[in-house]
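During the reporting period the student researcher (J.K.) took over the structure-prediction task from the postdoctoral fellow and processed the backlog of single-chain submissions. One of the processed entries is reproduced below for the supervisory committee.
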Amino acid sequence: MIKDGKTLADFMPNPGVTMDPAKGVRVRREGTTFVAEAGASLAPGAAQASEAAMIEAMQTVHDPEIPINIYDLGLIYRLDQNTDNGDVDVDMTLTAPGCPVAGEMPGHVAAALAGVDGVGVATVRLVWEPTWTPDKASEDAQLVLGL
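J.K. obtained the following C-alpha cells:
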C-alpha cells in the first residue's frame, strides 16, 4: 500500500476495457492479478515464433524511468508458448508496486508479443512473487544501473 492509502489496483485500468484499441490490448483482473491480452489465435498448422523473436520483441518495451528494456531488467519471470496454437503466456513484475506505469506495462508487453509473426494470443500477468531485485537484471543492465 502506498502512503496515501491507494493500492496497486487504483492504478490499473478498469477490467474488460480495451486499453489500446489500435493494438487490440484487452485487460482484466483475475482476483488480485492484473492480466493484459493482445493478438488472435493462429490458424492450425501455422508457423510459430521462435523464443529469440519473442525476447527481441519484449526488449522493445522500456520502463520510462529506467533506460533499460524490461527483459534485460529481469522483469520477465516466465515465457511459455503453447506448441498447439502459438498462444504465449508471460509472467512479469515491476521494479516497484508504486510504479506510475503499472497499468500500462503488461499491455505494452502483450502488444509487442502479439506483433511477432507466429504468436497467437499473448497473455501477460503482472505478478509480485518473487519480489524483483536488481540482481535479476542482466550483467549489462547492472552496469548501466551502476551496480
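The committee noted the following: The chain has one domain: 8-145.
J.K. will present the remaining backlog at the next meeting.
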